[in-house]
């Protein structure tokens, strides 16, 4: 693992044998501000795999926060272990002390394997834990706005591809209907879409079918990608778009909530060659970080009574529709994939706004 060649500013290894904590915090960039990114709790097969995931996710957060127009850099943390059996108060609080030791260079929140309640415990030891439970003054579950922003990206893709910003009458195949995928289905059904779903957890599928009897369940993802559909929405773990999946896809648009969907850097070109419009994941799933950022600065933004405002965060997340349209239009104009354009736009903002730190302020 070439940590020094990864582009990350800082990588911190956190160990507390008494609680079983083994974690990696990767700070990719602080050019625009402190590095915000969630904490993933996952049973990685090796330390190298955990480090690689932290580095990859941290870089994606840099681009996500930049393209969302936030004054935040990118970071990510991973805790090695099974969240169902290894997660304890002592472990989470030990982790919180390592976050605090970074002095605000890294801001943490929820990710796969962690919950708002977990962040409440982490927050007992650090000022830099966000996305906490509402009872503790936090913004609560960020998956609602993540799904909302994915839906806005999907509307933009529909406008760009079919000339109307709606999924009404379209078929959308959703792979993974946990928190984000489940909320996304609610939005799609309300918009008049026909929805196909699958998930490795039968209970998650059943919850969706109970709310929406008209939704159709499919056996597995391999079957789902071969189903006739207008949009494919990967909403589970990363790496969903590999060579086999792209070759089998029947959809004209790919737009989903999962992070790091591309199995390798050549995938966007393969999608373009097949005429499939790809909405970059970090562009469309930024609703969660927008929600967390509003929790951090709600009072200074003058919300009613100060503090977090869901309506204000939702209004800002709605802007992802316009950003996605600009990405698609510029990609067409430049003859490149939307993935390349989104990267360029994020990098341009980092370069132009990030340089302002050279203008020294009085202390």
Automatic annotation (TrEMBL):
Reported EC number(s) for this entry are 1.4.1.-
* An example molecular function term from Gene Ontology annotations: oxidoreductase activity
Keyword terms of this UniProt record = NAD, Oxidoreductase
- Keyword Metal-binding set for record: no
Superkingdom, natural source: Bacteria
Pfam entry (one)? ELFV_dehydrog
Family annotation (SUPFAM superfamilies): Aminoacid dehydrogenase-like, N-terminal domain (SSF53223), NAD(P)-binding Rossmann-fold domains (SSF51735)
Q: Residues in domain Glutamate/phenylalanine/leucine/valine/L-tryptophan dehydrogenase C-terminal?
A: 140-358
Query: What is the similarity comment for this entry?
Result: Belongs to the Glu/Leu/Phe/Val dehydrogenases family.
PANTHER family given in the database record: LEUCINE DEHYDROGENASE, VALINE DEHYDROGENASE
What is this protein identified as?
Glu/Leu/Phe/Val dehydrogenase
Tell me what organism the protein belongs to: Geodermatophilus arenarius
């Amino acid at each position: 693992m070439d940590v020094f060649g990864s582009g990350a500013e800082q990588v911190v290894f956190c160990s507390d044998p008494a609680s079983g904590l083994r974690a990696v915090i990767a700070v990719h960039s602080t050019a625009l501000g402190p590095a915000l990114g969630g904490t993933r709790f996952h049973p990685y097969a090796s330390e190298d795999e955990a480090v690689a995931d932290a580095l990859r996710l941290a870089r994606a957060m840099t681009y996500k926060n930049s393209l969302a127009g936030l004054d935040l850099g990118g970071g990510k943390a991973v805790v090695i272990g099974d969240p169902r059996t290894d997660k304890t108060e002592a472990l989470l609080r030990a982790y919180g002390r390592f976050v605090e030791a970074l002095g605000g260079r890294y801001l943490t929140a929820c990710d796969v394997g962690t919950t708002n309640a977990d962040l409440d415990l982490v927050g007992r030891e650090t000022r830099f834990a966000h996305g906490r439970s509402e009872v503790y003054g936090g913004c609560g579950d960020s998956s609602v706005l993540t799904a909302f922003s994915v839906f806005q990206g999907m509307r933009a893709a529909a406008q760009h591809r079919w000339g109307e910003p709606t999924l009404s009458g379209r078929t959308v195949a959703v792979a993974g209907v946990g928190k984000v995928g489940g909320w996304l289905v609610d939005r799609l059904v309300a918009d008049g879409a026909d929805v196909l779903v699958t998930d490795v957890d039968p209970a998650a599928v059943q919850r969706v079918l109970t709310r929406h009897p008209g939704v159709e369940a499919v056996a597995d993802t391999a079957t789902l990608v071969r189903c006739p559909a207008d949009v494919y929405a990967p909403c589970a773990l990363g790496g969903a778009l590999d060579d086999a999946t792209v070759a089998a896809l029947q959809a004209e648009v790919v737009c989903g909530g999962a992070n790091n969907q591309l199995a390798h850097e050549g995938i966007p070109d393969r999608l373009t060659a097949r005429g499939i419009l790809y909405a970059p994941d970090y562009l469309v799933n930024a609703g969660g970080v927008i929600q967390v950022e509003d929790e951090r600065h709600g009072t200074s933004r003058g919300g009613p009574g100060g503090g977090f405002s869901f309506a204000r965060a939702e209004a800002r997340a709605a802007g992802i529709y316009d950003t996605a349209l600009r990405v698609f239009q510029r990609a067409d104009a430049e003859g490149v994939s939307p993935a390349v354009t989104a990267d360029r736009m994020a990098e341009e903002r980092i370069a132009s706004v990030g340089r302002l730190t050279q203008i020294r302020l009085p202390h």
